């Protein structure tokens, strides 16, 4: 296990989390709670999720966020949490870059079975 010193949310991830928390649709609240519950898990082990091969990282995400690595965590209701682990000032930090539904995830990773 490799610990992290912080878990940060990108603006897009924070927006998605706020929308999920406010949505009264079945499963939205559970998805938001699970996403929040991952913070202590990622602090203990920043490499907890499924690794996305570097060659499989979508170019749009790689260019927008400058990704060197990408991990995926499954959430309830077929949502996914995408994050990266970076080093900053000698500290390891987890940055949650996106929290997306199945449709968006499938657009970025066509044919990827999960």
List the helices and strands and how they pair.
Blueprint: E1 6-9, H1 11-22, H2 28-44, E2 50-52, H3 59-65, E3 70-74, E4 80-88, E5 91-100, H4 102-108
Parallel strand pairs: 1-5
Antiparallel strand pairs: 2-3, 3-4, 4-5
Provide an overview of this structure.
The protein has 114 residues and is an alpha+beta fold. It has one domain (6-108): RelE-like (YaeB-like fold), CATH 3.30.2310.20. It contains 4 helices and 5 strands, in the order βααβαβββα. Strands 1-5-4-3-2 form a 5-stranded mixed sheet. Helix 1 (11-22) crosses helix 2 (28-44). The longest helix is centred in the N-terminal third of the chain and has 17 residues, at 28-44. The relative contact order is 0.23. The mean pLDDT is 92.
Features:
114 residues; YaeB-like fold; 4 helices; alpha+beta; single chain; 27% strand; 5 strands; five-stranded mixed sheet
Spatially, the strands of the biggest sheet line up as 1-5-4-3-2
> Which word captures the global form?
globular
Number of domains: 1
State the CATH architecture.
Answer: 2-Layer Sandwich
Name of the CATH superfamily: RelE-like
**Share of helical residues:** 25-40%
Q: How would you state the average pLDDT, rounded?
A: 92
The profile of the biggest β sheet is: 5 strands, mixed
What separation lies between the terminal Cα atoms?
23 Å
% residues in beta strands: 25-35%
CATH class: Alpha Beta
Order of helices and strands: EHHEHEEEH
Number of strands: 5
Give the C-alpha Rg.
14 Å
Spans where pLDDT lies below 50 across 5 or more residues: none
Q: Quickly give the structural class.
A: alpha+beta
Could you tell me the CATH topology label: YaeB-like fold
Count, helices: 4
């Amino acid at each position: 296990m490799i610990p992290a010193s912080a878990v940060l949310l990108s603006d897009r991830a924070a927006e998605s989390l706020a929308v999920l928390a406010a949505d009264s649709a079945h499963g939205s609240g559970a998805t938001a709670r699970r996403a929040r519950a991952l913070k202590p898990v990622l602090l203990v082990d920043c490499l907890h999720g499924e690794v996305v091969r570097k060659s499989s990282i979508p170019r749009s995400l790689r260019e927008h966020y400058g990704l060197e690595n990408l991990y995926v965590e499954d959430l309830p209701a077929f949502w996914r949490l995408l994050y990266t682990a970076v080093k900053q000032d000698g500290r390891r930090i987890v940055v949650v870059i996106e929290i997306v539904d199945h449709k968006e995830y499938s657009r970025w990773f066509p044919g990827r079975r999960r």
